[in-house]
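Lecture notes, part 5. Sequence design as translation. It can be helpful to think of inverse folding as translation between two languages: the language of shapes and the language of residues. The source text, in structure tokens, appears below.
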């Protein structure tokens, strides 16, 4: 906070659409207020592993581990800025374009 900016810690699961919406709001807030968002990976699958949840939600949670692991590995290897960029790219793919996290990155010609 040396330059007077504050930091907002933001925990997200890459597959959560509500976290995605809130994260995009935070990116807009950064443009007009003295705040920086510090993204942190969390896992809804882990948090709900012992909870009684519907089978379809459990299947959804089971499918989210890959994105959580990739985001965690990216941050560990390349730092918080890389996680921020990866979350933007992955979130756009999943939540804006409606693509699967396991689909090819480019459309076959």
């Amino acid at each position: 906070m040396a330059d007077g900016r504050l930091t907002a810690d933001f925990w997200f699961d890459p597959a959560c659409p509500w976290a995605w919406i809130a994260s995009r709001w935070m990116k807009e807030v950064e443009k007009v207020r003295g705040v920086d968002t510090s993204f942190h990976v969390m896992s809804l699958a882990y948090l709900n592993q012992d909870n009684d949840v519907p089978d379809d939600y459990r299947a959804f949670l089971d499918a989210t581990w890959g994105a959580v692991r990739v985001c965690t590995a990216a941050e560990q290897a390349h730092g918080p800025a890389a996680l921020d960029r990866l979350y933007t790219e992955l979130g756009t793919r999943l939540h804006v374009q409606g693509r699967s996290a396991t689909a090819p990155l480019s459309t076959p010609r």
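The translated text above is only one of many valid answers, since several sequences can fold into similar shapes. The domain at 6-96 is CATH 3.40.30.10 (Glutaredoxin).
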